[in-house]
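Quick one, T. Sequence first:
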Amino acid sequence: MKKLTSIMMAIAVAFFLMAGQALALYVDSSADYWVTTDFTTNETGTSTFTLVNTSENPEYSFGIYAKSDFSNKLEVIASNSTPGENVPISVIFDKNAGNPTAQLDGGLEQAFDTAFGFYFYDKTTYVYTDAALNGGLDPISIQYNELSAAVMISINDGHLVNGSDLSPVPEPSTMLLMGVGLLGLAGYSRKRFAKKG
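Structure tokens:
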């Protein structure tokens, strides 16, 4: 009975910790790549981006790049854009027939991945969400709200873009850790039932 009580206490603590995390508004995200949340329900998805404020350097443009080929870019917000003048810009993704595409509102479609990263460009240097493409530097910060699927993407000097309908792509190590944990639980359960039988 004492063992059952401690197991129930551990489950209760885990539940409250997870519930507390779910109620958090925005949390730091270390995800390099993202997908639109609409892909879970249908073949097309739309994510919207809005320039919130600019830093001392309004020369940055903002865009997305394909996970499989970082040279495949789509500029979403041009440099010298001004907050207030810049209406939300939608990027429409389509993965019909296995040939994913992306396009801006009313723009031409271009071949693209369903998973993508974000970049800032200051007319001389691209800065990507994947630090490996920046020589190990990670100047882009992403805050993520899981409940609303919203992100706040910023670069060190304060240039800030809001995005909506986005979800991080799980890293392989996260999936591996979850798989090992599930295997451990299955082994424990099997051992426990074998003792009873």
